[in-house]
Design brief:
By secondary structure, this protein is mostly helical. The chain folds into 3 domains: 162 residues, HUPs (Rossmann fold, 3-Layer(aba) Sandwich), CATH 3.40.50; 156 residues, Glutamyl-tRNA Synthetase, domain 3 (Alpha-Beta Complex); 132 residues, Arc Repressor Mutant, subunit A. Helices cover 45% and strands 9% of the residues. The chain has 19 helices and 11 strands. Strands 3-4-7 form a 3-stranded antiparallel β-sheet. The chain has a two-stranded parallel ribbon with strand order 1-2. The chain has a two-stranded antiparallel ribbon with strand order 5-6. Helix 16 packs across helix 18. The radius of gyration is 26 Å and the shape is globular.
Length: 485
């Protein structure tokens, strides 16, 4: 333990591209640890075995390292309270779940997914909040034993008080009260033997001696469940702090459907990590005008966790651009700037892979900028006229773009082979030839109908950049289609 005893953690799930919101929460925890002379820990929460992948875990670690965050314990470096990956801790949780069940605070539930879905549909139809109806709550011990012996699939759920409220003090929101009848009988142990997020979260925070849990405000409603688990296990809960969500300028929640949210998108466009951390850190400090440019150490010095705003943190891209420009101009020497440019160009093997693809397609080196420039551009500035030369009518192009975007999100490992396979599958499902589907994608991704091979280009650019370019292309083509009647 540290002299201060303070131990905080960031616990991302490796189920997708690392989100700037993860960096935002991680930075708060990092600054909190520095402020109090404590420890900052990284834990990977991969209880969702169907969506968690080693590729996404690597992306999480790489993204947080790129941000300049350093942890004293984690899956990559170990530590005294490991392992730091929940799938490697599967053997730990069973005894804690059994303790809850044995004490009468949990129960076996045999309800099938089909039965639960019908229950939720009926609740929604009656304008009731969907939550478990307690069907298996009072099964006898004999029936539970018999059904388990017969091989029926079962989960463990937690019991919830039937009266009163859960009262707790949040480090940001102050005194909070949530009625128990608003809390669901949460599943603690899934049928496959893995704990749910809620169960694993509490056990891991206890065993890793976490003193303060700082996370997004979307988890505020889950605190009663966590407090109950601590209580059922006879453990002391940590201090909870729930940070305001990052929002767009219109106050809507920051989401990849509206705006780029992946850290990899900002790295690909040439934002530098110091500027992004500077931008995010300004949400946690009180400064005067003219003091905006701040290093990590300066942010830690000014960091004030006692004076946080409950208003949404606005992700103002213009302010980020301004800060990034100032960092490039004012904080980097010429040598450092040149080094950063080369480092950025080589990121994800972009320069080498792009040159390899271009070599057989040019007659002189001067053609390289036109052929490969799209790999390095922040914005293609696509004009609707760029799609006019495609043989398909605008309506068909728009249908293709809008179909491809969500389908590409299903790809777990983003590479040439998986991209090609998915686009071929899209073409088959749409009943179109592959060349009809890829024609508008060439323009959307590269800005030109003459370009490097599409699948390779998409792999080099990365999922986040491709996602944004397809979205902007859809908007451009939609202006050719016109409003719906």
């Amino acid at each position: 333990m540290t002299a201060s005893g303070v131990r905080v953690r960031i616990a991302p799930s490796p189920t997708g591209e690392p989100h700037v919101g993860t960096a935002y929460i991680a930075l708060f925890n990092y600054l909190f640890a520095k402020k109090h002379g404590g420890e900052f820990i990284l834990r990977i929460e991969d209880t969702d075995a169907t969506r968690s992948t080693p590729e996404f875990e690597k992306k999480v670690l790489d993204a947080l390292k790129w941000c300049g965050l350093k942890w004293s314990e984690g899956p990559d470096i170990g530590g005294p309270y490991g392992p730091y990956r929940q799938s490697d801790r599967k053997h730990i949780y069973g005894e804690y779940v059994e303790k809850i069940v044995s004490a009468g605070h949990g129960f076996r539930c045999f309800c099938t997914p089909e039965r639960l879905e019908k229950m939720r549909e009926a609740q929604r139809a009656a304008n009731l909040p969907p939550k478990y109806d307690g069907r298996c709550l009072n099964l006898s011990a004999e029936e539970v034993t018999s059904r388990m012996a017969a091989g029926e699939s079962t989960v463990v759920r937690m019991k919830i008080p039937v009266e009163g409220s859960c009262r707790f003090t949040d480090g940001v929101y102050g005194e909070v009260e949530i009625p128990w009848d608003a809390v669901d009988m949460q599943v603690l142990l899934k049928a496959d033997g893995m704990p749910t997020y809620h169960m694993a979260n509490v056990v891991d925070d206890h065993l890793m001696k976490i003193t303060h849990v700082a996370r997004g405000e979307e988890w505020l409603a889950s605190v009663p469940k966590h407090i109950l688990i601590y209580r059922y296990l006879g453990l002391e809960p940590p201090v909870f702090m729930h940070l305001s969500l990052m929002r767009n300028a219109d106050k809507s929640k920051l989401s990849k459907r509206k705006n780029p949210t992946s850290i990899s998108y900002y790295t690909a466009l040439g934002y530098i990590p110091e500027a992004l951390m500077n931008f995010l850190g300004l949400f946690f400090v009180q400064i005067a005008e003219g003091e905006e440019l701040m290093t990590m150490d300066e942010l830690a010095e000014k960091f004030d966790p006692e004076n946080l705003s409950k208003a949404g943190a606005i992700f103002d891209i213009q302010k980020l651009d301004w800060l990034n420009g100032r960092w490039i101009r004012e904080k980097l020497s010429q040598e450092e700037f040149q080094h950063r440019v080369l480092q950025w160009a080589m990121e994800n093997d972009r320069l080498r892979a792009g040159l390899a693809l271009a070599q057989s397609r040019i007659s002189k080196l001067g053609e390289l900028p036109d052929l490969t420039g799209f790999l390095f551009k922040s914005d293609l500035n696509l004009d609707p006229s760029a799609f006019v030369k495609i043989k398909s009518p605008p309506e068909e192009i728009l249908e293709i773009l809008n179909t491809v975007q969500p389908d590409l999100e299903k790809i777990l490992e983003w590479n040439v082979e998986s991209i090609e396979a998915e686009l071929r599958a899209v073409a088959d499902r749409m009943g179109k030839k592959l060349k009809v589907v890829v024609a508008p994608l060439f323009v959307a991704v590269s800005g030109s109908s003459r370009s490097l091979p599409l699948f390779d280009s998409m792999a080099i650019l990365g999922r986040a950049v491709v996602r944004q370019r397809l979205k902007l292309a859809s908007q451009a083509v939609a202006s050719l289609v016109g409003p719906k009647n």
